[in-house]
Amino acid sequence: MRRLGLGSYGSLLVIALLFTVSCGYRSLLPVASSPESTHPSRDDSPAGSDGNPSPTRIAVLTLRNDSPEPWLDRILADAMRREIGGRGTFDFVNDPKHADLVLRGRIRPLEVRSKSFSRFVAALEFGLTLRLDLEVVLKSGDIVRLDSRMLSESDVYLASPDVEVTRTNRLEVLRRLSDVLASRVADSIEMIERPIPARSVGEAG
C-alpha cells in the first residue's frame, strides 16, 4: 500500500504525483467502523441523467479518541460531515467498501496549559490545543496523509469557580476548533479531487 504526503495548508503538493510513489507502506492509523450518518447516503452513484459526473462517494469513519473528552469524536465527525457535505461534490456512504474516499484517523491527547492567574495563583484562563492525525484512503488503495500542521489549532477558555461553567467553556472552544479543523480537512479533500496544476517555468512569477 502506498503512502502519500499532502503538503502544508498554504502550499499543498500536486496530487497528480501520487500515482508515481513506490509501494510498501502500511498505515498504522486505526480502521474504525463507520457511524450512522446524519446525512442522506447511498451505496451506488451512477452517472446523472444530465451527463454530469456523479458526486465522489466518501465515508467518514469514527475517529479514535485519545483525548479525555468522551464526545469529542462525535463533535468532530459531525463538523466534518457538515463541511464536506456542504461542498456539494461529495456523497456520503456508510460502507467504506462502496466509497471512493475514506477519511479515518485519531484525535491526539489534548494540550491544556494555564495562560493567566489571579493574585491567589488560581488559573483564570486556559489555552487548549486540538490536534488530529488523519489520512484519506483512495479507491485505488493509495493513502494520502493529511499534513499535521494544518490539523492543529489552539484557543483559550475562561476558568470559573463553578466546575460545570468551566467545562461548558471548554466544550465551546472544542466545538469552535472542530469547525476550524473540519473546514481545513474539507479543503484538503477537495484538493485531492481537484489538484492544482503544475505551473511551467514560463508561467512562474
List keywords for this structure.
nine-stranded mixed sheet, alpha/beta, elongated, 205 residues, Double Stranded RNA Binding Domain
Write structural notes for this entry:
- Strands 1, 2, 3, 4, 5, 6, 7, 8 and 9 form a nine-stranded mixed sheet that branches.
- Mean pLDDT is 76; it is low at 5-49.
- A hairpin with a 4-residue loop joins strand 7 (123-138) and strand 8.
- This protein has one domain: Double Stranded RNA Binding Domain (2-Layer Sandwich), CATH 3.30.160.
- It has helices spanning 72-85, 163-193; strands spanning 3-5, 56-60, 64-65, 90-92, 101-107, 111-117, 123-138, 143-145, 152-158.
- The protein is an alpha/beta fold and 205 residues long.
- Helices cover 22% and strands 26% of the residues.
- Helix 1 (72-85) packs parallel to helix 2.
- It contains two helices and nine strands.
